[in-house]
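Good morning N.,

You mentioned wanting to compare the apo and holo forms, so I went ahead and generated the holo version with 2-phosphoglycolic acid. This is what I fed in:
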Amino acid sequence: MNIQNYVIGNWKMNGNWETNAKLINSIKSNLPHSLNNSSTKTVVCVPYIYLIQCKGLLNNSIIEYGAQDVSAHENGAYTGEVSAGMLADLGCKYVIIGHSERRVYHKEDNELIADKVNIALKYKLIPILCVGETLEQREEGITNKIVKQQLETVLQSIQNSEQKSNIDNIIIAYEPVWAIGTGKTATAEQAHTVHAYLREIADNYMHKSPSILYGGSVKPSNAKELFNMLHINGGLIGGASLNTQDFCDIISTLN
Ligand code: PGA
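and this is what came out, ligand included:
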């Protein structure tokens, strides 16, 4: 199985023009040298308005950039939204979709998320589809049921759409909600069990087995153990992606 590894930073709503430039420039100069010859891809997903800044800063760099959300609509009267076409226009290649902070704070459901993945694929963006259970759901023993619903709603919808032939472009990120920004990480075994289950489901719909990333309090101290697991193909990194040393150390663990 030859599956692409990724380390993807999710800056969330952090940074400004000055701190972004410092962060990107120091990541560029501290990146592990081995990255040039490695198969791991490094991406930063930044607030919309800084995509243009990152495009400039990352010109000729092996680091790629992406957005953190996209509208489900193609264009029109949707005040405040940003379309997939606009992201593509800025040279953006990736977009996070269905992050738990969007599901919870913006009431995004699986159907809306499926529409967003669909439009992202239409514009040749790579959707990073986030799934994950809450602490209550884990304690109730329904983790598998929840992540299956989250993943299958999207994959079924894509399979029945014009984007069917692009389904293999989807990256999956397993992010247990209880581990995001809390300092609590899933153990490598806990994460791996869910990853193996997600792969089983994804393989029913996709022709090529997808990259499945783990997210939720990944740090240099736990990255190696997580990334060593067979079905974990890298990470979606929140807090630690805002610190050059931490982010570069996490990237080194995959190289
Ligand atoms: P965290 O966030 O690494 O800060 O837990 C991960 C994410 O929300 O993508």
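The chain has ten helices and eight strands.

Happy to go through it together on a call whenever suits you.

Best,
F.
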